Automatic annotation (TrEMBL):
SUPFAM superfamilies: MFS general substrate transporter. The keyword Transport applies. Keywords: Cell inner membrane, Cell membrane, Membrane, Transmembrane, Transmembrane helix, Transport. PROSITE patterns: MFS. It is a multi-pass membrane protein. One of its GO terms (molecular function) is lactose:proton symporter activity. It comes from Pseudoteredinibacter isoporae. Residues 155-401 form the Major facilitator superfamily (MFS) profile domain. The chain crosses the membrane at residues 25-43, 55-74, 86-103, 109-128, 148-165, 171-191, 221-242, 254-273, 348-369, 375-395. It is found in: Cell inner membrane. It holds the Pfam family MFS_1_like. This is PPP family 3-phenylpropionic acid transporter.
Amino acid sequence: MLDGQNSAGESAGASNRIPYWRLSIFYFFYFAVLGALVPFWSLYLQSIDYSAQEIGYVMAALAISRIVAPNIWGWLADKTGQRLRIIRWGSCLAVLCFLGVFWQKSFAAMFAVVIAYSFFWNAVLAQFEVVTLDHLNEEPEQYSRIRLWGSVGFIVAVVLLGALFDAFSIALLPLALLVLLLAIWVSSLTVSEAETSHHVAHGDQSAGESRFTDILKRREVWVFFVASFFLQISHGAHYTFFSVLLEEQGYSSMVIGGLWALGVLAEIILFMYMPALLRLFGARLLFWAALFSAAVRWLLTPLLVDFFIALFLLQWLHALTFGAAHAVSIEWVRRFFPSSSHGQGQALYTALSFGAGGALGAILCGYLWEISAFWCFAFCAIAAFLGFVLSFWGMRKAKLD
């Protein structure tokens, strides 16, 4: 694995256009924040006596802002061409808003703080994806090798924080998140605009918006967005209650973090070989495999939670359910939308999938969890399978590979 990473660094370093490590470090810290939030935030909320429904709503707040924020920032970035300025201001304001976590005293206050800081935090990733692809220019296959450092950041965060919380207390989570959010802002200051990035002239704006609407009317495009929406609904139980489920079965924070890290390790391996997998199987088959694997994964998780070896094996499916789905989605958005509307395309993907899908999944799972863990995860399996059926119907004849 290290050899693959070194070769990626050398090949990227061979081109002065690609600031490989500066881009990679940003992804490292951005996804380290997710490595702190996703496995441990629900456990932290449970530790301060939040109910399952309240946990569901607060977790949904992280996704709700993704419905609106990426589209606002995407439109603004495409109109002004000031992507890095938006990324830097978004990172800085996310830090300032997150400070409210240390003073909130109620569920309503926590919900408001999470909405506020995530509104700016969610301004960042979709636009940084565009900055990265601008730097890669005619070498988009390098994307997976840069993005894998985000997965490394996630693993480092879950392993170190899992050990920290076992040794001390999960009450340290807000402080850890504040440090990581600061690191995102600092790393954004080290990245420069790509030579290929451009400002969209005002005269071209209305034409670009017209083309954007026309693209969305193509069947394979809207089917892709709806299938991505279902895929992220299906992650609701995993992102919101997987750690709670494990803790209720007696697993320690260290083991919980280790299982999360294992899934992301599988994701890293997939990212390293993604160019070869795309050539071998094609993007469409990998997308179908991601949706079908998600249905299997969510159905089996509550049934096999008592068997560590089964959980160990199921976590490897994360390579498909997130890694393959995300890499294919980023590539398809790049192909579907021209540079004049690329930021809006990335923002719409984020808003509909991680935003609307993630929020709806978290809220519904908050209610289903109080019925039973099985029905919570079974609902998610059904959502993933619906996405698979829809994408198979809508994409099987389209020219996507």
